[in-house]
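Exercise 3.2. Students should predict the tertiary structure of the chain below and write it as structure tokens, then compare their answer with the key that follows.

Predict this chain's 3D structure.
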Amino acid sequence: MFTMDYEPKKTGDSFKLSGNFDSLTHAWKQDSSKIPGFNQDTEGYNMFFARQLEHIMTQIFWKQYPEYKATRLIPVSSEAGPGATTITYRMYDRAGSFGLVSNYANDLPRTSVKASEVRRSILPFGGSYGYNLDEIRAAKFANVPLEMMEAEATRMDYEQMLNKVGFLARANDPTYGGLIGLVYQPNAIIARPAYGLWTTTNAGNAQYMYLDLINAVALQGTITNTVEMPDTLLLPFAEYVAITTTPFTLPLGGGGSGTVAGFTTVADYFLAHNPSVKEIEWVIDLANVTPRPSTPTDMTKSTNVAVFYKRDPGKLKFHIPQPFEQLPPQERNLEWLIPCHARVGGVISQYPLSILILELSVPAT
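Answer key:
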């Protein structure tokens, strides 16, 4: 052990120290090892310095969610205004003919105009956020922008709601008050693929993927006498990956086969060889759609769907008469509550045959 000698001789004498520092170190290790739960290497040093050495990043990180695409892919309209309770549009058509007549004809063919009205409800949606006095003080102490973060979280909930309404709301679903989204538009064309070989990136399926796509465009054009031709195709992510990564091959002359020069994938070839579609997007909400658009009351059946449509406000609109708004804070004892509000009318297609829904998981019969 370390020892200290002190031998005072007279006033002014100094201490006399002697000892073995190696022995002192050894003794410290021996004695400290007897303290329950104490480990010099991991706890003895680290317990004093762990928090001092910690770096706290100042950037705010939010949990990541898939992009909400409805308001980007469906034309948005706020023309009704926040005070409207219904949206009405009138569809006009002509009836009659114009034909050959004689010089003294007194029964000229007559043309008239007839009209029909369609009404849809506008419904209120709401949410809120708040904080109390202690939370405000704690956030200020920790330098956390509490109010901004709460407001942003509520705004993201609003965007999520819009996304669900825009794509998947249906008339018989009370969750969104009977509003209707893109997938469940009444009188839209609903079809099934002839082949449906979309579950693999095997190049042997390239022809079938292409034929399913081009047949859908041709079907819509045939049914509407080319009045309605889509310019946009929406796909579930898996099918989007399939057509954008599968090499495109076709049988070539002489019975051989190979990649078509200048085109690398099914999507590449389809965009270059169809009469109207110019853009393809993936939307995760189009996977496992329940119920199927063809049987909207049967909750036991689901399908992946592709949507062909013309992205034109003259064909369809996503009505949001009152976008997200925050009302003044309401003081409640030691808490402040901020109400948030919006009014939504859903998707209205003035020309429903401008939309074709392809039920990918249901083969044609």
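Discussion points: Confidence is low (pLDDT under 50) at residues 252-257. DSSP finds nine helices and 18 strands in the chain.
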